[in-house]
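Example 3.2
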Amino acid sequence: MQEVLHPRDNEQHSYILVTGANSGVGLATCCRLINEFVTTHPSFECLTLIVTTRSSDKSKDTIRRLEQHLERQSKDLDTPLKHRISLQPEQLDLTSLRSVQTLANRLIANLPHLDVIICNAGYGSVTGVNWPVAMWTVCTDLVNAITYPSFKISSVGETTAPQQMSTTECSSTSSSLGKVFTSNVFGHYILSHFLVPLLSASPDHGRMILVSSIEALPSHLDPIDIQALKSNKAYESSKRLADVLALTSSLPSTKPFVQRFLSGSSSSSSKTIKILDNEPEDPNADTRDPGIVLTDNEYRAPASSSPRIYICHPGICATSIVPLPLILYYCMMAAFYSARWIGSPWHTVSAYKGACAPVWLALADKEELEDMEQTEGKGKWGSSCDRTGHERVMRTVVGGWGLGGKMGEPEMANRKGTRPGTREVTKEDREGFEELGRECWRQMEALRVEWEARIKSE
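Structure, written as tokens:
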């Protein structure tokens, strides 16, 4: 790990990790974190921003751009921001579980605690555009066409490179995982689990912030194909999965699995990660499928130091996730601005405005945030804009869940930015969403336990 010069140790110090920080919403999130931390926190408080990229070249470029941002923001200040803000570059390939484990071990060995993980990195698998469909839908229904696009062409069945494994026997013989699934969800899931001890040591007990998408619809996720290996909507499936996991993370029916996930793979005093084979045996566990045997009766309420899980999305930003020639990129920008002027609240267009929701969740007062989710229900927080471009955070309707997981929310269907055809959440919808959440948590925990056992301890 590169040596990092931290601000003075006797000052209050926050640590925030942002994955996929080299471009787009990830880089904008880092810039916005710097700006808002400086303006909302006392001058004696300091921040270490841990930014991950996939290569050393991207890491150097990201740090260079963030240092330039710090210099620009310091121009009118008596004291340069580098005395309050330190940058810590790290390399991480989320499609490699060994890379995930290596980073987690390094952070556990070198950080006193971790306040926030912003799980932003991802992979879209988009290979092109169905232009006839794109032109027809944009001309006939502009806002919905570019909010919930049906014209993207994506690859099917992409897998990661074979993971390095130990000789531990497990329930699956495959040495690979779904690439989009692993990059967007499972890699972050494993990383967050490994880092639970650092998160729990935070004064606010830590936050896991999953960055989803407004495109995630109920039809995109098939729990029988949770890795979306057979789907041509693997990206949208991964984002719907993130929604389901986050929104059901505090329900009684998912407690057995969430409790295991939040138990972490090491104690806060340990300097290395313990693979499950080395953990004390659970006499009630069936080692052939640890993720399936848990029942509600086995649940032990998480300690008050357990991290909290939140979900957000950046609205619709003009990023490079869909490869386009320059002229078509400008056409896309014009369409986005037109949708905003028509009245769409979700077309943030710029990545900096798109970073509004994740940064707000990262820096918001803990008691205020928990009170909002306790009163209004657990929700999906989105970055939004008015016609003039003023951004704000707005709760987003999620299919089968609504705004806060409550039945009969009368304002939901007529809420600005709600997808046409959305109806009030019924009892059957709510029960189905909760059952889906339990099944997704069960499968994710089963996969986590299996793959942890398959990776050699460093």
